[in-house]
Amino acid sequence: MHKTARQVRFSINPFLPADSDGYNSFASRPSGEGLSIFFELLVEVAGEVEPTTGFVVNVDDIDESVRRFAVPIFARRIREDFRQGRHIGFFEIAALLGTAWGQLADRFGSAKLSKLSLNLNPFRKVEINSEDSKMIYFGEKFEFAATHKLWNEQLSDARNFEIFGNCANPTGHGHNYIIEVTVKKPAGSDSFCIGDFEKIVYNELIKLVDHKNLNVDVAEFKKTNPTVENIAGFAWNKLEGKFSGAKLHCITVWETDKTYCSYYGE
Fold first, then answer.
1. Domain limits for position 84
2. Average pLDDT over residues 5-16
3. Would you state the pLDDT for residue 48?
4. Is the predicted pLDDT of residue 169 greater than 80, yes or no?
5. CA torsion through residues 190, 191, 195, 201, sign
6. What is the pLDDT of residue 132?
7. pLDDT, tens only, 227-259
8. Same domain, 123 and 237
9. Which of 89, 82, 1 is nearest to 47 (CA)?
10. What is the pLDDT of residue 167?
């Protein structure tokens, strides 16, 4: 089975009765006018490759279905609640995704909808998926800067440099790390406060590693190599069980924009 994903971008201006469709889907369609709210909706479908086309589904069909059936759901709710001065919270966003799921589920032939993920900004998302339809997933990215050195004292100097290359530089080297923390909550459970979530991640993790020499300043890495894999596991251990009413789902750490590791605690 293959999974094909398509990111659909759209903008909504809550001050206007409607938005023009526009012509540039790379930026957003509807295009929005003036100061608009920008969204990215990632749609993932699963199925077998169709031999004639080589597609699981034509991504143009995803674009058309999302803009015809899903975007109006968000546009109506945003305009209605904005005019009434009502807040759209975490579970309301998830409910909108659920309504969009109902509109999109049977639009892709034999391929099945497997995930809807709404990017609220470039660093924050709300997601639902077919594997665990009763759960809502929230993920947010954080950054920290740190130095490390990869070295195994049980190996010779030559072997260390052979394995770790520049990462074995005797005086260490630095990275601007990005870490995404994803938690899950049952649909319809108690409220979720992003500020509380961010405070926990900052106090329990970011403060420990930001602008630190990981090999020297973090006890867990004095005898364990601070690889991106081990950093992900370390973050999991620091955060697991700390979120009231939510369960830690995944930790993803980017060492560079080309190298990352995800850890699920299993």
1. 2-130
2. 95
3. 92
4. no
5. positive
6. 83
7. 888 899 999 999 999 998 899 999 999 988 888
8. no
9. 1
10. 74
**Residue type at 58 in one-letter notation:** N
Name the amino acid, one letter, at 31.
S
Report how many domains make up the chain: 2
Asked if 226 and 148 touch (Cβ cutoff 8 Å), the reply is yes
Domain end call among 79, 95, 130: 130
> Could you tell me the pTM of the whole model?
0.88
Statement to judge: residues 76 and 110 lie in one domain: yes
- Asked whether 167 and 232 are in contact (CB, 8 A), the reply is no
Position 150 scores a pLDDT of 78
**Cβ(43)–Cβ(3) under 8 Å?**
no
The residues, ordered by sequence, that sit 6+ positions from 28 with a Cβ below 8 Å of its Cβ are: 9, 10, 11, 22, 38, 39
| Mean of pLDDT values over 89-118 | 94
3-state secondary structure 50-79: CCCCCCCCCHHHHHHHHHHHHHHHHHHHHH
Res 129: pLDDT: 93
- Crossing angle for the helix pair 71-84 and 90-104, nearest 10 degrees? 150
Active site residues: 167, 211, 255
